[in-house]
Fold this protein.
Amino acid sequence: MKKTILPILIVFCLNVNLFAQLYSFSVNLNGKPSQSMVRAYQSNATYIAIEDLLNILEIPFKFDAEILRGQVFINEGDLFITAYNPFLFFVQANGNKISYQMLQNVDYRYGKLFVPAKGLSNFLNKYTSIQIDINEKAFLINIRYNKSDRRIIVQKSDEKVSSTTATTSKSDITTNVSTQTSDETIKTTRTNFDLYDFAIEEKANGYIFRIKSKKQIKSVSKNLSGNFLYLRIPNSTIDTERFNTELNTGIISSVNSIQNGNDADLKITLRDKIQSQEIVSEKKTNDILLLLHVSPEVIKKIKEENKKRLEAKNKNSNLDVIVIDAGHGGRDPGAIGYRGTKEKDVNLGIALKLGKLIEEKLNNVKVIYTRKDDQFVELYRRGQIANENNGKLFISIHCNSTDERPGTSKGFEVYLLRPGKTEDAIRIAEKENSVIKLEEGYQERYKHLSDENFILTEWRRLQMSSIVKNLPNWFQKNLEEIFQ
């Protein structure tokens, strides 16, 4: 049956690293969207960052970087997750121990534990009150969980401190947690850590790394090894989320931390050599000052590198290259109208006219076309064209089809395609990506990708969302005038 066709634009935001493995799942918690997302990647299965998930649920988690093992304090007991191991070890509150084997190993990358999504959800659904449904096609995790059931981790303290931590014995994997309650036992929250924030100050002869503390710190041990400076602060709790970050300026490139039993461990990565370092306790504030003495030559070098890095970042965030993709082409006609009009021809006409208008109106924007004539361009090649030209915005032009003869529909639709945002966007991607079946060797080339992921793998949104989030409204207001 021949159909009426109508224009549709699919807008993609391009990431500087278009082939990065990481992507994100949106989360609905008890039917409500969470502002946070869960990082994931695809290998032989889908893996999700367990810490991201636990942060959304506000479930306590402790990670031992030495043995790459995480401990999750679930209401029903303690769950131990170890890197490169397929087993989840669960010590229930009644003392019963369960060893649960998943089909894949737990992975450790990007400084995080990544757990096979299916294995984790099956375990939680069976043994805990956390009920999870992972929709991989929609990039969506639905969770049912009553936060009032959260386990309170407390520990009796000799001092009136603002926070405590649970400790784990490495030898027998048993939890050492006091359940006594008094005025001195306080639930650990993100705002109740002894070491809760840091600041960096630049001086003429170096830098001051200030660790903000709520209590007086009696001693700090340190060790410098290459470009890594390790600190151990005894009997202190630390906000591991705040103290795990990358820095764009100064001598320090990143700060990482773990709660190691009762001690707080920090790893500070330096960009260059330092002359010396010392620890000073500021009594009036209880803050710990790490003094890093640096030569003037190194300070000058770091400033120049920071300037270049900032310029490169600004260049990458500028909307200076727009890639226009005329959908279909060559042996792929797309939809065919009831009078024989081919979608590929309509798409090309719109693409060329749109590109010309952009070049006329936006002098500083370069326009790249995936095709400028009637030729078949493989889907993967369209992504390569965007990559090779450092494209910042990808506009894919297609036409809707309808069985009405003639159709009464008119106007334009714009999809800003991002993982898991709308079912309509996913549906459009699935239909348009079916063109890969016209490519030679498509089964091998795309064997690891799901239907809706063909396009998203090439054109992953990350940095440009703030620039393009209003584009759909702009297109709706201006396209009819442009194409009259």
